[in-house]
Fold each of these.
Amino acid sequence: MIPHRLDPEREFSSQIAEAIRAGIVSGDLISDARLPSEAELSEQFGVSRPTVREALKRLAAQNLIRTQRGATGGAFVNRLTFEAAYDQQITTSTLLLSMNEVDFDTACEARFALERACAPLAAARRLPGHLETMRAEISRQSRPDLSDEEFCASDVAFHRALVDAAGNPVLSYQLAGAVEAMQPLMNMITFTARSRERILALHERIADALAAQDGAAVEAGLGDLADYTKGLGADVRAARAARRDAAAS
């Protein structure tokens, strides 16, 4: 059950939210279970109803609970899904990368190492729909009128399909940040130097290997794409350094 004792040195609403969250994680509060009313929680924790309301708002913002109005309303434990948690994972990964100033090579290394781990599973389990998505994105990427933003979005969709082809929702969730947070940040750095034709050729090679269910070839294609991406990052850094030196002289 939810513990009653609060630390007077810490914010009450935060502690109440933590206690309810702990009950959800432990399974004491199961999916779709109705929480005690605000009045009951207020009495249980010995705090005001506005304090309880603030705690519930925090939990709702984290998608852990939902509120319903009416005679049968109240606050209920949400049934979380991996798909519903994707956005939060992407947002958290993006903030971590930007706030901690993770360097390009570190992000690139992590992203491709994680994605390459999916290659054997994706090759063994890919479905026609995954291949269709990847082929459609390759076709889209070949359009000369495609903007840089659209090319980046297509690039993300291509790799998202590869990851999802592994047929493991835990991997898909964990890689949501790697593919949909790290990749756009890397694209923002390299788009001025990259060759769309080179990326397109690598994507075609990876898709062909996946269609042939050749996990080693998929992994090798991702490895070559990683090397190319790292090379682009080095080229961009060198060009920036040259411009700085020229401006200083």
Note: The first strand starts at residue 65 and ends at 68.
Amino acid sequence: MAAATPFIEVADAIVECGGKDLTLCYQCATCTGSCPWGYVEPLNMRRLIHLAQLGLEGYEGEDLWRCTTCGTCTDRCPRGVAIIDLVRAIRGMMGETGLIPQTLRSAVGSVRANGNPWSGERKERNAWAEKLEVPRFDASQHEYLLFGCCMPSYDPRSRKVVQAATKVLRAAGVRFGVLGSDESCCGEAVRKIGSEEVFGSLVASNGGLFTAHGVKKVIALSPHCYHTFKNEYPEQGVKVEVIHISELLAELIGSGKLTPSKPLDATVTYHDPCYLGRHNGIFDPPRQVLQAIPGITFKEMIRIRESSLCCGGGGGRMWMETKRGDRFSDLRIPEALAVGATVLATSCFYCISMLEDSRLTSGCEDKIEIRDLTELVAESLG
């Protein structure tokens, strides 16, 4: 029997790493035409997949790390190719050979060493909870584990969101606690960067904590945590009921347990995070919450729901430099201003970070605010 040619070996390895749909692609280029990079500096996803089918011969290494895993291409692919899985599998192969950008290598290394991608000390994780006197999770007393994500522990802007969430949940009588410094990153970004090994260790670590503490229900503040706990942890045997904060707020307001009463004089538009909307179909709850806040005039932007424009922070891009003018978030600010918005609301730490950067660098800091949905609800409680 003849030995397998190198390109067949590479293609088989991609399939084994999770890119099982590699041969399904018939090169229609819908992915390339759908990609948000087309608005700034086009990313030829069709070519990248074709090179993978041919064993990556001639691949130069730039396009692979530009994908934000927003899911637009997967949504529109006529063959139903799981393109994000292909990207993840190819990145995993590249990572094994050391061909991974230094900033991403540092982020993965920090997760391995400290349980977070921000080079923060583990002891600082959930330090915000101690200051707010949020108790350690106790299954006999608490219904929910509040999983705040890595960012509030190490990013001051994100910390305002967990402060608002704590205020709102307490006002509604929700019984919740946190796991303290023992918990680790959910691993969503690590997996999309291509480090399946580190992701597996995070699932085992967090899953063990959930079991040891009797956690059954999780409130996720980040869409990325929500997506991972709901869709990816079960693949490795860890199952919990997870609800995103926007869903819970809509339920609490709908049931009368939470009543926003202080009018907010603002024209608000909403940016759909990719991992909340396109990946998981959560479009209505955030809008229901915003429309329940008195004084708000709600306006929709041109690209919403399934067609929402990615902020540019997913897929590891949070740890990579994107020059001004090539940031998707630079395009989003003018779209919000075009409908007369004084507040651009969202429900994702990545989106807030990217949109805040664009707001400040575009000279629009006096024209519009970037707010998390939870912050607006907390403000409306007085």
Note: Confidence is low (pLDDT under 50) at residues 1-5.
